[in-house]
User: Which sequence fits this backbone?
């Protein structure tokens, strides 16, 4: 018998802080429109000082476990 495989929950985390093209344009000396035309990005999320991508992954993982209604000990594999 094989092992059952499936997606039972997903999670995502975005830091609360943000940086708009308006704010960034003042730093770079270009227009907000120029930034958008070059990148396609209007607002980017900014993690607080000291927060690493691993910390954001932990928060997303907690959401996924809650959505799945399961305990971490029951999970054999996480794909990030």
Assistant:
């Amino acid at each position: 018998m094989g092992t059952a495989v499936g997606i039972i929950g997903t999670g995502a985390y975005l830091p609360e802080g943000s940086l708009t093209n308006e704010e960034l344009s003042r730093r770079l000396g270009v227009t907000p429109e120029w930034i958008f035309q070059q990148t396609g990005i209007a607002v980017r999320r900014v993690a607080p000082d000291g927060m690493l991508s691993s910390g954001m992954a932990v928060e997303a993982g907690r959401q996924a476990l809650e959505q799945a209604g399961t305990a971490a000990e029951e999970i054999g594999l996480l794909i990030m």
